[in-house]
Amino acid sequence: MTLHSEGHALAISATGVDHDYGKRPALHGVDLSVAAGEMVAVTGPSGSGKSTLLHALSGVLRPGEGEVRLGEHVVTSMSEDARSRLRRTDVGVLFQFGQLIDELTLAENVALPLLLERRKRDDALATAKAWLARVDVVDLADELPGEVSGGQAQRVALARALVTNPGVLFADEPTGALDSRAGDSAMELISDIAAEEGLTVVLVTHDARIAAYADREVVLRDGRVDADESVGAR
Description:
Residues 12-233 form the ABC transporter domain. Keywords: ATP-binding, Nucleotide-binding, Transport. By secondary structure, the chain is α/β, with parallel strands linked by helices. The protein has a domain at 9-90 and 206-228: Rossmann fold (3-Layer(aba) Sandwich). Helices cover 34% and strands 26% of the residues. The chain has seven helices and ten strands. It has helices spanning 50-58, 80-89, 106-116, 121-134, 150-162, 180-197, 208-211; strands at 12-21, 24-34, 39-43, 65-70, 73-74, 91-94, 168-172, 200-204, 216-221, 224-230. Helix 3 (106-116) crosses helix 4 and helix 3 runs parallel beside helix 5 (150-162). The longest helix is centred in the C-terminal third of the chain and has 18 residues, at 180-197. The chain is globular, with a radius of gyration of 17 Å. Residues 1-7 have low confidence and may be disordered.
């Protein structure tokens, strides 16, 4: 069992991405490039298209128009099954509320992506506990999600997102459910692991303090890129 594989950060590019929800427009001709190993924060007011862009980049949805590339993969040309497999292998996704499964222990939650890939249970749990140690909550491995704090649960969700050694991490408001202290702690952990692993990171946030952890900030407004500028290295 190994904790991580040789680094394989993935570059991301989006060209002419449009998407509507029925008659409600969400994205209009978005062009975006993210270098391998870069951390980019996507910000903007509510309804500006931040989460829709994240879902398009990560293959959760196929946009109505445009092309998305993730490394060598043209995500927008892939079937739903192929995109799902890509998210299980090359992509990690971290959500605002963690979305842990209440009935599973924390170790089982982290091991789940490996078990879905048919890894042996003992090996999957050993890898999961190694990642729980990496995020400083291995002593809680046998606890249930309802028995730990929000900050601890988000660390577990981060471990689950990274347990398959993805090349890119997509984080949708990863500190939105945390107080400022727990949020800063979570972002410091994400930044440290991203730097150590050479991960590409795209995070959506409404918090300028959280965006400052990134290398670049991309501001969306009314579904369009309104600004794209450096905000300081991790």
